């Protein structure tokens, strides 16, 4: 039985992302995305604005200049096996795609829960080789692309180019008051991350009376704002490395299972981060094996989405965890 774990592959269109291996030229994005999907990614996350601690932020037009060519390249290419089932009438709605290979007659179930369960009817084979157990809402699919931005104008422009996608917002709408209304109006799925301040200032705001209680309160408050904005489909990301000390990141991992109280699938992004390589005295480039250890620990504590630089390795981690859970 599938545990409904998803992998989000990271593709950075910036020149200053902390892990050089994620940096990708716009002309190479489509090929890289296709490889990530083939390797087991559910969603490929495009970022044109570095949000590492202390990073200065580009203007909106600079961010769009990096992102637009990649989006137009992808919008002009329907991926093999993709399905044109989205209600969006634009040229690229083929990018909303089923995530499973059919094993029977290919028919869709009568109803399904779109709370980020995989697009995968019972009995089909999921993206990591596991059997599917989910069901879905007719006419809706999980987009194959997400865009990592905190700007509503980027969301609006991107939708004009390529239709539905997932929005991955490090600020949960705090850095742009128009973000949540825009996402709600367009009917897009959304990732809300826990962060204080901005990327430039966030490490100044690491004082918590109780780290996990603060994070849970943050998301309970966000749930109210999301409902007001008409956002039904959203994921909490507790924000490893954002407004947290090294020790707090490990406390967050240790207590991650407490976020099950939110009744939402939790997204975790620990790939090659400083919480790993600083402890070990290595570089991000050397941190892949240790990343897999931390990802496995996150899965054990309830994470159901992994945001990763290395999709094949993450997929193998998920398969091992699923196998062990099935014993």
Can you offer a commentary on this structure?
The chain has 327 residues and is an alpha/beta fold. It has a single domain (6-101, 142-325), classed as Dihydropteroate synthase-like (TIM Barrel), CATH 3.20.20.20. The chain has 9 helices and 8 strands. It has an 8-stranded parallel sheet with strand order 6-5-4-3-2-1-8-7, with helices on one face. Helix 3 (152-162) packs parallel to helix 4 (179-186) and helix 8 (288-300) packs parallel to helix 9 (311-325). It starts with 5 loop residues before the first strand and ends with a helix. Mean pLDDT is 81; it is low at 79-140.
What is the spatial order of strands in the main beta sheet?
A: 6-5-4-3-2-1-8-7
Task: Show unreliable segments.
Answer: 79-140
Tell me the CATH topology. TIM Barrel
Shape-level CATH architecture: Alpha-Beta Barrel
How would you name the CATH homologous superfamily? Dihydropteroate synthase-like
Structural class: alpha/beta
The number of helical runs is 9
CA distance, first residue to last residue: 11 Å
Rounded to an integer in angstroms, the radius of gyration calculated over CA atoms is 18 Å
Order of helices and strands: EHEHEHEHEHEHEHHEH
Query: Whole-number average pLDDT?
Result: 81
Number of strands: 8
By CATH reckoning, the class would read Alpha Beta
Largest sheet: 8 strands, parallel
Beta-strand percentage range: 5-15%
Helix-residue proportion: 25-40%
Number of domains: 1
Q: What is the 3D form?
A: globular
